[in-house]
TrEMBL record:
Source organism (scientific name): Oncorhynchus tshawytscha (Chinook salmon)
Pfam families (alphabetical): ODR4-like (PF14778)
Broad class of the protein's primary localization: membrane
Lineage: Eukaryota, Metazoa, Chordata, Craniata, Vertebrata
Gene behind this protein: ODR4
UniProt-recorded name of the protein: Protein odr-4 homolog
GO cellular component: endomembrane system; membrane
Subcellular location: Membrane
Amino acid sequence: MGRGYIVEDVVEKYLSNLSVPGASCVTGLLIGQSSSQRDFVVLAVRTPQKDTEGQGSPSVSRGAGNSLEYLDVEWVTEHARQVSRMLPGGMSVIGVFLVTPPELSKEAQNTLRRLIFAVDKHISKGRLWSLTEEDVTEKVTLHICSKTRKVVCRTYDVRDPKSSAKPADWKYQSGVCTSWPLLTCSVGLNLVFPVLEMHVLPQDMEKCMKEGLQTWAKQIEDGLCLINGDAMPGEVELLGGQVKRSVPFWVAEPQSERRLTATVKVCSGSLTLKGMVQCRAYLHSNKPRAKHATEVIKRDVINTVSSRVEMFLEDLLMEGEDKGTVFVLYFSLGVR
């Protein structure tokens, strides 16, 4: 038997409402959290219609007939990226679903495989934190027949391009995440990124800030996290009393024996990133340990800052603005 998925019962109702006989194909995302023993699905979100010149059009062309060949994979993956930006820490897109009429059931499995690999690749692009050996790389695909409502659940290892489908157990349950602990964290930012060129274009800003954020993200990953003011060993299990309330975190500078080196560069300007990051993350209640808590909150800090910077740069590139050689970006990142 493959991986097991514990699914919030509201997801069953949501998917049931999408499984209407005679309706067109529907794609969507499965949101939740993975653990070493089992995964948890707490939300399902359908892919919205793509607005083309003011006309709504589904992700599968109406002219496609009895085929999924024209499914808009790019639109599905972009939706996944946008959803990922809005999720609190600990939550991620762990799978995709597809609702089709019975005549497309065989074709659906190949389509789901193509979708899950494309979605993971698009979301992972530009990620600033590193995967660990304990990270689960199996993602789930769910096919639902709109007529019989039969559900087929399979997983793929997205780190293996040749991965074949594995059967998975899909079980609905109420109150899946009601007992999950909430982790909170505040991190102040005052980052300065050097600009080497005299005339700074939006593309140059993007390069400078991404390089600077990679260094900062590594410092966050190596930093010391305190849980309720204490430095806990990674294998310590968070007990019931600790996980029923908000757990504040503090991230300190890493204490490393590695010698730090400084490089002197002649710069024509700088980019400054200032603000206060207010983050929160949720941790599953399946024997959570201190190392899991520090991991989800650190990743949320990194993802929050990275996403906000990406959105700022995207707006700048769209507007084509060039504001000079010195840019100062002041912002406040609120709790998601």
